[in-house]
């Protein structure tokens, strides 16, 4: 093994360890919140696409956990930001941790991928750009990824919170 390969492998292992640590800190923080709110939920941790991913799931059905998702995921977004801040406080590093509650983001990701695919089909048939409704950064990222996978380009336009995706012809 060359020296460059060894350091790249060590760097990858360090990143994984750091992301696992972020997940552990986030899980502890979220456990505390669940206890305070007197809600039941299991915490699942993973590392996906170079970021820690933490999910709160429940065997009891997700009705209780829906309070933590809120309307259009607003409470989920706020909890994710608070969790990132808790990780930052412990590590001193900015976190890109992704939080999902009761499968909300997973379901939303599937819906947004489908929306991206429909926009791609419309652009391919009309040859004209298609503007989508305003979305959160998470939602825009999912659509951009779906458009890229279909072989087209997309851009974000506008200012938060009215920022939206435009799917462009090839």
UniProtKB/TrEMBL annotation:
Key word Metal-binding present: no
Keyword line: DNA-binding
Superkingdom, taxonomy of origin: Bacteria
GO MF annotation list: DNA binding
InterPro entries in alphabetical order: Jag_KH, KH_dom-like_a/b, KhpB, R3H_dom, R3H_dom_sf, R3H_KhpB
Domain R3H, residue spans: 106-170
PROSITE patterns (UniProt xref): R3H
Entry keyword DNA-binding: yes
Annotated SUPFAM superfamilies: R3H domain (SSF82708)
Protein name, per record: Single-stranded DNA-binding protein
Lineage: Bacteria, Bacillati, Actinomycetota, Actinomycetes, Kitasatosporales
